[in-house]
Write a structure and sequence with these properties.
This protein has about 190 residues and is an alpha/beta fold. The chain is about 15% helix and about 30% strand.
Length: about 190
């Protein structure tokens, strides 16, 4: 019934499973796909726990921070590790905070895990705060939190500007007016 020759035999069925592997483009040393001409996403940049950076970081890619950053960070996806401390503003599409952040956080999707410690305002489109996270600051939802607050403030100022003919001073509450003082009559002198 069973034969050793059939088990060791390389037949056409073994080759039918390999075309998908054979069709895959070769990978480079970094593990990036060389066949798609840069269309694949590079691996996230990692700042290890023994690294301290003083200055701003800016990338269109992903960043994982385990060390200390004294400066602002702008990225696509930012992951703040449990051992990390960031002192500055964070702006990213997706932000996952496991460690400590001292400064404003602006992101489309912001997630504070149970080990997060945030001291600053969070401006977001969607937010998730796990039980156990520490947060001191305000939370504000915006449709586009990645743009700075300047254009929104200018728009608000223009919307609140007085219409022509109106006073820009806010109306004062009605207060009782003191009785007018009586003036002594004055004599007019003729000037020659």
């Amino acid at each position: 019934m069973f034969s050793k020759s059939r088990i060791n035999e390389q037949g056409p069925k073994a080759d039918t499973a390999r075309p998908a592997e054979a069709a895959a483009p070769p990978l480079g040393r970094s593990g990036m796909d060389l066949g798609s001409a840069g269309k694949t996403k590079p691996a996230a940049s990692v700042l290890s726990s023994d690294l301290t950076v003083t200055g701003n970081l800016r990338t269109t890619g992903d960043v994982v921070i385990e060390g200390v950053v004294d400066g602002d960070i702008r990225a696509h996806l930012l992951t703040v590790g449990e051992s990390a401390t960031i002192r500055g503003e964070i702006v990213a599409d997706d932000i996952v905070i496991n460690g400590r952040v001292i400064g404003r956080v602006r992101g489309l999707k912001v997630r504070l895990t149970s080990t997060a410690r945030v001291e600053g305002d969070i401006i977001h489109k969607t937010i998730a705060i796990e039980s156990g996270a520490h947060f001191e600051g305000s939370v504000q939802r915006q449709d586009d939190p990645l743009t700075s607050g300047q254009p929104a403030r200018q728009h608000e100022a223009a919307a609140n500007a007085p219409v022509q003919g109106q006073s820009s001073a806010p109306p004062r509450p009605a207060q009782p007016q003191p009785a007018p003082m009586q003036k002594a009559p004055t004599e007019a002198k003729a000037v020659k």
